[in-house]
Amino acid sequence: MGVTIYDIAAQADVSIATVSRVFNGSPRVSESTRARVEGVADALGYRPHALAQGLARKSTGVVSAVIPVLTNDFYMEVLRGIQDAVCARGLDLLVYSALMPEEVDSQLGRALQRGRADGMLLLSTPVDDVRAAQLEAGHQPIVLVDAAHPAFDSFTVDNVEGGYLAARHLIDAGYQRVALLSVSPEPPPARERREGYERALRESGRTPEVYASAHRPYGFSEEAGYEVMQEIIAGGNLPDALFAASDLQAPGVLSALQDAGLSAPADIALVGFDDVRVATFARLSTIRQPMYTMGHAAADRLLDRLDTPSLPPTARQFQPKLVIRATSECAAFAPKSSPQHGKTALA
Amino acid sequence: MGVTIYDIAAQADVSIATVSRVFNGSPRVSESTRARVEGVADALGYRPHALAQGLARKSTGVVSAVIPVLTNDFYMEVLRGIQDAVCARGLDLLVYSALMPEEVDSQLGRALQRGRADGMLLLSTPVDDVRAAQLEAGHQPIVLVDAAHPAFDSFTVDNVEGGYLAARHLIDAGYQRVALLSVSPEPPPARERREGYERALRESGRTPEVYASAHRPYGFSEEAGYEVMQEIIAGGNLPDALFAASDLQAPGVLSALQDAGLSAPADIALVGFDDVRVATFARLSTIRQPMYTMGHAAADRLLDRLDTPSLPPTARQFQPKLVIRATSECAAFAPKSSPQHGKTALA
DNA sequence: GTGAAAGCGCTAACAT
DNA sequence: ATGTTAGCGCTTTCAC
């Protein structure tokens, strides 16, 4: 069934050591034997056995990515970046995704198992010291994306700045009551976005107004956005503008508005966060974070660390960018139907 | 660094065989030794080494999924189904995704390498006899999703029926000129959808009118839909209704319409295919295929086949479902802005 | 330049 | 119920 180096060795009349040398590009093989071995090998259709190779080499050729709830364009984009980077270096990618945030630790455990992968990318998973200990016990290089901890490399976007940009934009556009739609419990990125938002409001002498969805299992979802917006509408006291802490809730907000016969920006301006695909389509103003780039850079870092484990942990922060589309056009300039919806080619 | 069964054996004063038995739940271990071994094991923080285990057991505990271009909600949903099913059985998922359709074969080769995975799920990859031979040479159980070949299990949606449903719906809704937006080259699913579409048109005595995008690298994309729709608009001879062969192009179509000051269904009705997330949001009428379910069912089949390799190849076809949303509301209820087009022939 | 042999960490007969 | 031992397929000293 499986051709082994023994088969090749026998046919080529050399030892298995020589066959191994040939496949590992050792210089200590004569050209003639090399040719002979290679000939036999692909006559037989030999492919090395990944497990055996891994066991002997003490490395798997695999890296893992642990992702909470895969249902999500943000992770999808990050994952693309990861996949591309990993694949470019000839490694394989093992994907662990949890169904619920609570499952993350069990997925982590599996990903950390010895012999599964050589390193791990951990997405959007807050790392406290307890979890950090668990991770370090795995003795694998680990890189964090959309989360940070001093003991590990991390790749994040400046969420505080993003929150500030969003709020500042709405304030500058002339909106008076600028509210925030966040989630509860509040993960670190949401907290940071809120901080930026609050700073912008304080700067202009206003009072923050925060709504938080406690939707289960996941506050960052369209359903959650829909529900909260519905409640706000029902409350009868609509703010002028809303900053949704993620693009995942924003479509829900828009739907709720639509169902109530309202729209953005006519009745309320809206700015999201992330700039996932649907944002372009929904003409949603938003704060862009370079998802693909972050994934790619994080994976590259992990791969470097695989070669050089002693690299010092580095925190790299990307700058978010305000993308103004239709849902927050300045009240003054808003000729409500103007189509400035370009095709965005992306990184 | 790594705790092995030898360490445990030494500390618990038993042989490695006994330790192994404990971890494999063998009944032939006394309760007292079992307890002792387990005690030592988790005092030492033992975790079995996946590679060594796999090598000895001749199985990896991993299945792979090969996916062309991950940038796509369709695959994302299917992948979720796969991930959930695989995870539920305690296996891990290796994801191979190509950047371009041309890379698929090299990814296949890697996924097929001995010792990488115990089985493979192949998505949206047409399998001809050449490829079938390559796949069979890997001696792994393989299950196809969104593609079919007699030698393998396959999970597909009835694309012909889907195409028929879409066209029939538009015709029944009173639209006269019903065109199709497809891709070129035309993969099997697109061809089947066209077949259904053409049958519906013939049944009602009309002439099919087909537009095909040759957008690179991938015709099933928003950009492709945008471009083709722009050309159709530029042609100045708009059909009454358009059936887009996938939801990935449909948003592009809608954007092109919007940019031209047109809209659906007022100026042209639109029906897509897939029912991905954005379809709900775009209020796009579409043909739903059960993506999550297909992925889950396919993975379940693969896992069954892992236990029972002799299962006969089975082709399971799911029924598509017409989902009527705003973009194809019956013409009677959606007064057109201007009846500027007579009844003329095709592109 | 090539071969012999000792692992890598575990499983699974085969003993006892 | 437990121990001994031979692999699994490959890499890698260490000799020659």
Q: What can you tell me about this protein's structure?
A:
The structure is a homodimer of 347-residue chains. Helix content of chain A is 43%, strand content 17%. With 347 residues, chain A is an alpha/beta fold. In chain A, the strands form two sheets. Chain A has a six-stranded parallel β-sheet with strand order 2-1-3-4-5-11, sandwiched between helices. In chain A, helix 7 links the parallel strand 3 (119-123) and strand 4 (142-145). The model of chain A is unreliable at 332-347 (pLDDT under 50). At the A-B interface, helix 4, helix 5, strand 2, helix 11 and helix 12 of A face helix 4, helix 5, strand 2, helix 6 and helix 10 of B. Strand 2 (92-98) of chain A pairs antiparallel with strand 2 of chain B, so a sheet runs across the interface. Chain A binds a DNA duplex (16 and 16 nucleotides) through helix 2 and helix 4.
